[in-house]
Amino acid sequence: MRLLISILVPLLVGAFAGFFTSSGVNGWYATASKPWFNPPNWIFAPVWTALYILMGIALYLVWKSGADIRLKQTAIILFAVQLTLNFFWSFIFFKLQLTGWAFAEIILMWIMIFITILWFGKISSLAAWLLVPYISWVSFASVLNYFLWKLN
Fold first, then answer.
1. Consecutive H or E run containing 18
2. What is the pLDDT of residues 20-38, one digit of tens each?
């Protein structure tokens, strides 16, 4: 049951954020100037789905561990903070179309993901490594966000 909950939480946050994303992708984003390295729109949903599943498995490994309760609580709170920032980035970028603010927010999100990886690593190295594809994708998304901000 913990595994199911751990995977569903990020997937549901992602699905809810997708509501804001889809309206923006089909609206202003479709006509926005994009850098040459902008991937096709169809790639985002499968990549984010895979990342949310990996995030959920990482959360599960931390949650089920026998680590000190305060260490686990801190790690889970950090995870919740970065996941909340993940949700709000979609809202700021796609719904509000505030690409500059979205860039500032994604940098904060990146920092929180990094801190979460460090804390997860204190509990489970596998959990920490499962978040590496996520921070890698967010690094790419940060660069993309920056160029979209500057081009538009």
1. helix 2-25
2. 776 666 678 888 999 999 9
